[in-house]
Amino acid sequence: MIFIDTELGRYVRSPFTAALAISFLAMPAFAQKRDEQLWIEINASTVLSEGVKLELESNQRISNDLGGLYESQYLAAVGVEIANGVTLTGGVNRVIAVDNGKVSSTEWRPRQEIGLPIVALGRGKLAGRVRFEQRFRSDGNDVGHRVRPEISYTLPLTEMLKIRLAHESYFNLNTTDFGQDAGHERMRNSAAILFPITAKVNAEVGYLNQYRFNGEARDLMEHALNTRLSIRF
Questions:
Q1: pLDDT tens digits for 185-232?
Q2: Which helix (H) or strand (E) holds 19?
Q3: Which CATH architecture fits 36-232?
Q4: Are 115 and 129 within 8 A, CB to CB?
């Protein structure tokens, strides 16, 4: 049974994978506020020892509505494979918010996460990840706690190309003095094409839809062109 009538459709043949693809449409049909963005991510990693990996990452986010660069993120993390495909990762993210070319706030964001394979579906693989974060911001005294579960499906299209579909939700565990409200804050749905450039350099280009639930204020839907360059050294 084929659910998507395109060239890629022949790869999506089970009800589960079709439901995963359709889930990208399962969001509020009309956000009252919208924004177009460009996310530029560069990731570098190296193996420290068997099953242990160091990862460094830079993420620059540019907004149409906010007039340019509005956020920079710099991550350092170490991952340890504790079982076949099961990885524990710990690290810290430095987040710099920018408003009209000036730093408006900074944040230290420690993180802990577990990533694991779930099941093989057809020619692709379903995987999960749960991330915990603690937020120490310069514009508040409280510490924000949140959890970010993600589910993804990666499917090889050709020998060189893969497609990755993913859903991630943000659940804030507390309310803080810097503006974090407890509850389901946002969700991200994305689709990306992955391909190698050289033996140690891979690229990813895709679309990311981020929907922010803003309570009594207007919700925000962000459309982002998401680019990622991964380098192994």
A1: 999 999 999 999 999 999 999 999 999 998 888 899 999 999 999 999
A2: helix 15-22
A3: Beta Barrel (2.40)
A4: yes
